[in-house]
What does this fold into?
Amino acid sequence: MDEYLLFAAFALFVLFLIPGRHRPYAGIGGWLSMSLYLFAEVPYFLSINNFLYPTLALLSIPFLYVTAKRLLAGDDHITHLTRAAAVAVLLYLPFAYTPLGPWLIQIVIDQIGWCLSALGIAYTMPEWDMFARNGLKVQIILGCTGIQSIAIMLGVAAAVPTDLRQKAIAALLIVPTIYLLNIGRNIFVILAYTGQWFPYLPEIASNGEYGYESFFWAHNVLCELGALVALIVIAYALFIIMPGLAAMADGLYQAFRDDLTGAISRPQGSDLER
It folds into this structure.
């Protein structure tokens, strides 16, 4: 089911990028598919005590309301945001469903292994994609490569019209920075989990597996917060490189603020009275 939703989003966002009167409806369908995908993934994320994505799934409901309304009205800022999502999905899906994914995972694994060896840290690899140390194992999956964040930020950079120089600078800022930070993130998680650095508050951090608390605090909390800060800093740098992005962000803030506060404060039954 999840794969069908992603492919639906892919197809609809491709249609959105093609000029025509169908674009608002294709954009709404693409956003709806992504929202449903988030909800379909909620049980998995809850099983690993990851609350970020379930929260995003809930927030996607008011987001869809505003986005659909504004796309149908021809709002430029929402159109640019939808273009960013379309580009991000088009960049990400080839890695999710072609040999590009395992190829990228292997590159990341090789570089993590090189870094661990350079630090003098002993480890074994019981599987091609798994690091083991002190009897604990960490698997490297596509989500550990940073490709999602890279695709999202490249989509943001493509949201507004820019010249070739701005595009090149943005790509050079986004790709190496996120990739290198992600290598560091993986090394931190491996060391924190296999070294049991954070065995705290098992009542909220444990999923029943031995030592999972350290993985929870390292991966689900510290690294998620660190990634959020890094993306904010990169976005701020993009605003400087591409002033149009700052104007888009301001327009999006005003659109969501006005529509959501208006929906909340609207007197009950006012639509019927009209």
